Amino acid sequence: MADPDVDVALQRIEKDYPCSDVKEMTIYYDQCAQTYELDVANLNYATPRAIAEAASNLALDDQKRTWNILDLASGTGLVGEALRKSGFSGELTALDCSKNMLQAAMNKPGLNNAGILHTLTVDSPVPLPDSTFDLIACGGGFGKDAITAKCFQEVIRLLKVGGFFIKSSRISDQLKEFHKEFEEELSHLETSQRVKVVASDMYSQYHWNTSGGGSTGIVSGKLDVYQKL
Ligand SMILES: C[S@@+](CC[C@H](N)C(=O)[O-])C[C@H]1O[C@@H](n2cnc3c(N)ncnc32)[C@H](O)[C@@H]1O
């Protein structure tokens, strides 16, 4: 017997997802902002917790209180919320191109977010100075029609020397080309000694298992941690 909540979530999160360009994607997220958290909860979305755990492994207790953090492609603020729950109490800025997703992040009690409504592309950098952040966390924001591989350089620009970038992206056939492009960008940045890989792990990003076995599945994700040199 299928679980209707899981079926609805899969329809909205997986099947309705548009692929043509960032404009269409922004409209999609504006439309699904109200149902996003319900849907990802029904699919046991694990990314925010995975990012917060990775960040906790990098920071000493006093750094948790002082790090200036960017939640890049914040969506409704789930990553920021998980970081707060893990003890990160310094400045936290959410950035997203969807007005409605960002608004939900800004409305979350206790986050004290600053919010930036901005579409990050190679031609449209984030309107902030170099070396602003100690940590940039990005859960599911990089991808083919979202934040493109070339924007890795912009993330590095925004980090302080020694700062960390934690990125989660899903593993799927549709994103094969994106992952290849990202590896090329990484290789340039490593060769020019601007960045090093600290950790790279696969994990279960979504999984669902409905009663009666009507619909079961798993979507794998890759969690990468980089450090600016
Ligand atoms: C899969 S959602 C993830 C949201 C959140 N990080 C989470 O883990 O729940 C992707 C988010 O990235 C945002 N996004 C995608 N491309 C973007 C871009 N180029 N600039 C800014 N935000 C972008 C979308 O609006 C959406 O809110």
UniProtKB/TrEMBL annotation:
Under InterPro entries, the record lists: Methyltransf_25, SAM-dependent_MTases_sf
Question: Which Gene3D superfamilies does this chain map to?
Answer: Vaccinia Virus protein VP39 (3.40.50.150)
Locate the Methyltransferase domain: which residues?
A: 69-163
UniProt name for this protein:
Methyltransferase domain-containing protein
Supply the source organism for this entry.
Answer: Clavelina lepadiformis (Light-bulb sea squirt)
Q: What is the lineage of its organism?
A: Eukaryota, Metazoa, Chordata, Tunicata, Ascidiacea
